[in-house]
UniProtKB/TrEMBL annotation:
MF GO annotations: oxidoreductase activity
Gene3D superfamilies assigned to the protein according to its UniProt record, in alphabetical order: Medium-chain alcohol dehydrogenases, catalytic domain, NAD(P)-binding Rossmann-like Domain
Name of this chain's protein: alcohol dehydrogenase (NADP(+))
Lineage: Bacteria, Bacillati, Actinomycetota, Actinomycetes, Kitasatosporales
Alphabetical list of SMART domains matching this protein: PKS_ER
Length: 347
């Protein structure tokens, strides 16, 4: 037996989002029903609503930065109780059997994870995301939101936070390491906060100096404008790790030249077009070009605890649901500091 709930959905590619209704499955043995309180707007929501990555399914209810309260639990649930503060990130299921799932790296499930939206669940039904009032999810794919983080500023941590925490941890950002974050948007500002809290020497590389004061407030030690050609000469061979958060194509050779011996450039932004580079940019300093995709359930919970310990949350602009189309345009225009979050009570 399903339940019909209000939501905001895109009826077709590039169409404005509009208020509608969707169905949620009945609460099963190991499910929790979440009353959604806040849903962050990720740039990937826009890419998918506008079918810029291909394979979009419509109608589409975006949203994979979800926080709320448990409203009901299935009879077999052991992790959560009614009233608990919880979140849901970019996926709601995986095969649970492959080596990566068993290692707690469900985001790299060899059979493919079930995305929170624009996907098809193991029951054959489409998934609908957080721009809605309720969500039913298996307890193993829900996260506990620690006390001390507001549910509003915690919502973007479920994607933006873990997207930066995972590579920073994996490539050992910390004391004695020089880390650069490319871009100071919804992803980048969390990268600055987390890298600084990990103890790294943090540099922001942004197109202009307009966000320098913010970057310093978030913990950055240095800030350079990439529009200034001198930046690339001045910082040549400087960094141990560069995390690229932007979703436009960059001159990879130029950024690789900023790496020290054995340095790594990690991409977490997803440009629309294929990238290219000169292999000699890698050979010259035994440099690496890598990618990273969100994080598993275990690491996402670790990230939430880390952010709570260090008092970290996303910088947000809270909006009503009927402002979502305007918010999309503003994200594309880089006119947000730094993450829009929908108050789902307004749906």
């Amino acid at each position: 037996m399903t339940t019909t709930i209000p939501a905001y959905a895109a009826p077709a590619a590039k169409a404005p989002l509009e208020r509608t209704t969707v169905s949620r499955r009945a609460v099963g043995e190991h499910d929790v029903l979440i009353d959604i309180k806040f849903a962050g707007i990720c740039h990937s929501d826009i890419h998918q609503v506008r079918d810029e990555w291909g394979g979009a399914r419509f109608p589409m209810v975006p949203g994979h930065e979800i926080t709320g309260l448990v409203a009901e639990v299935g009879p077999g649930v052991t992790r959560y109780a009614v009233g608990d503060r919880v979140g849901v990130g970019c996926f709601v299921d995986s095969c649970r059997e492959c080596a990566n799932c068993l290692a707690g790296e469900e985001q790299y499930c060899l059979k493919g994870f079930t995305a929170t939206y624009n996907s098809v669940g193991r029951d054959g039904e489409p998934t609908y995301g957080g721009y809605s009032t309720q969500l039913v999810v298996d307890e193993n794919y829900a996260l506990r939101i620690p006390e001390g983080i507001g549910l509003d500023v915690a919502a973007p941590l479920l994607c933006a936070g873990i997207t930066l925490y995972s590579p920073l941890k994996h490539w050992n950002a910390g004391p004695g390491r020089k880390v650069a974050v490319v871009g100071m948007g919804g992803l980048g500002h969390m990268g600055v906060k987390i890298a600084a809290a990990l103890g790294a020497d943090v540099t922001v590389l942004s197109q202009s100096l307009s966000k320098k004061a913010d970057a310093e407030r978030f913990g950055a030690h240095h800030y350079y404008a990439t529009s200034d050609a001198d930046t690339f000469e001045q910082l040549a061979g400087h960094f141990d790790l560069i995390v690229n958060t932007v979703s436009v194509n960059l001159d990879l050779d130029a950024y690789l030249s900023l790496l020290a011996l054995d340095g790594t450039l990690v991409n977490v932004g997803a440009p629309e077009h294929p990238a290219s580079l000169n292999v000699f940019s890698l050979l010259g300093g035994r440099r690496s070009l890598a990618g990273s995709n969100i994080g598993g359930i275990r690491e996402t919970q670790e990230m939430l605890e880390f952010c709570a310990e260090h008092g970290l949350g996303s910088e947000i602009e809270l909006i009503a649901a009927d402002q979502v189309n305007e918010a999309y345009d503003r994200v594309v225009a880089s006119d947000v500091r730094y993450r829009f979050v929908i108050d789902t009570a307004t749906i």
